[in-house]
Amino acid sequence: MYCIHCGAQNLDQARFCALCGQAMRDLSGAPSPAAADQVRDRPYLAKPARRSPLRLKLAGGLILLIAATGAYLAYARFFSSPGKIAFVSNRHNPEDDEDLEIFVMDDDGSNVQRVTTESERALLPAWSPGTERIAYITLGGSLNVISPNGSAPFNLAQNVDAQGSWLRSFDWSPDGRKIAFSSQGQFMVINSDGTGLAALGPGSYPRWSPDGRWIVVVSEQFPNDEGSEIYLTDPDGGNRVRLTDNSEIDFPLSWSPDSERIAYFSGSEESGTDIYIMNADGSQRRSISQTDENEFALFARWSPDGRMIAYVSISESDNRSAIIVVRQDGSLVTSLDNTPSEFITLSWSRDSKNLLIVDGRDDPDPENCRGDCNLEIYKMAVDGGQITRLTQSLGLDASPVWSP
User: What is the mean pLDDT of each run of 10 residues along the chain (404 residues)?
Assistant: First the structure.
C-alpha cells in the first residue's frame, strides 16, 4: 500500500495515510480495502488524491485534520526574495496526477523550466540557502539535490532505513552544508555532498534554527494516540531538551528569524488546534489564533522580518479554508477567507510583503469542486490582500517556494 500524495508506504493496510490523510492505495492505484467504503460514499477519493484537506491518522483512531501538502510546509525553508520560484507540477502530462516533477519559474510566472526527469514522483522542492541547488524527495524514498537548471543531479540518500521507508521530512542547515531528515522515527544529518551520514536519535520532522545552533524535532511516538511532544537538540543530537509536556498533539512549524522563538500547533481532533508561540527553551507559551470546535489552525510561517505569522485555518464542517496573517500578539493583519482551495501552501517573500499560495479560485466550479479543483499558484499581497495569478496550466501546480 502507498499514498499517492506523499509516498508513505506499508502502513498496515490503513484506510488513510498516517502522514497526510489521503486514501491509501495498492500498487495498482486502487484504494485500500479499508478505504473502499469511503470511496463509494466520497467518489472523489477514487481519483488521484491531491487536493482534499489532510487528516493525520493517529494510532488508536485519532485523526487530525491538516491541510494538504502538510509535510511539504514543514520541509522547505520560507525565507525568500523576489527571484525564482520552485514548484511541483504535472503540466507536462496533465492527464497523470502521479507524474509530478520539479519546475522553476521567475517570480512573475514567466520563464517556466522543468528541472527533474524522475521515473517516480518528485516532491517537496527546497532551495539551498545559496540558491545553487534544490533538494527534493521522490516517491521511492530518495533524497536528492539538483541544480535549478536541471544539471548535476545527485542522490544523497536512498532507503536509509533498514525497512526501506520513505524519507519523511528534511531541512537544509542555514549554511547549506548539511541536510537534516527523518525516517521511521529517527532523525539524521548528512553533508550536502552525500558524506557524513549520522543517525542522531529519536525524532521526526526536524527544523533547523536560523542561527544553526539547534534542531527541533517531534517525539518519536508521533503519530500516536497519546499526543506528541517537541524536543530541542544540538545539531549533533546532544543536549536533548523536552519543550512540551501535555496530552495534546504538539508539532513544530517555524522558527522566528532571530532563533529566539518557535511557532507550533497544539490540539486534538476533539478540540481543534491552535497556533502557539514559545521561547526556544519552552517557556512563555501563548496562543495567537482562535478556533471554534472542528476548526484547525495549522502551518504557521514566520515572516522574514519577524513581525508577522501566516497560518491556515480550516473548518472541518464545510471544508473551507482561510489564510490568516497576524502580528505576534495575535492581532489581525489580513486574511483571505472562504478560499475554495483544498491544497494550501504558504511561502513568504523575503521583503515580507507577499505570500505564495495554491488556490482553486479559478476552477470552473470553485464552490463545488471539492477535491478535484484546478489548482494554480498565486501571489497574495499582505497589505490589502491583492491576489495575482502566476501559473496557468491544465495540470496541477503546487508546493511553491521562493528562492532565498
Answer: 45 41 42 41 33 33 31 37 84 88 95 93 91 88 92 80 50 95 84 92 90 89 64 92 87 92 87 90 90 80 94 77 89 78 75 90 70 82 89 90 90
Domain boundaries defined on the chain: 1-49, 66-402
- The C-alpha cell of 346 is what? 504558504
Intra-chain end-to-end CA distance of the chain, in Å: 37
Helices (H), 133-246: none
The sign of the dihedral angle between the CA atoms of 323, 311, 379, 205 is negative
Query: d(Cα 375, Cα 344) in Å, to the nearest integer?
Result: 10
Q: What is the DSSP letter of 234?
A: -
* φ, ψ at 238 (rounded to 5°): -85, 175
**Spatial contact of 18 and 57, defined as CB atoms under 8 Å apart:** yes
Q: What is the CATH number of domain 66-402?
A: 2.120.10.30
Distance CA 223, CA 2 (A): 17
Residues 6+ apart with CB under 8 A from 354: 348, 379, 380, 381, 382
Any alpha helices (H) in 189-340, and if so which ranges? none
Collect all residues with Cβ–Cβ distance below 8 Å to 151 and sequence separation of at least 6: none
Pairing assessment for the beta strands 241-242 and 249-255 based on DSSP bridges? unpaired
CA atoms within 13 A on the CB side of 294: 6
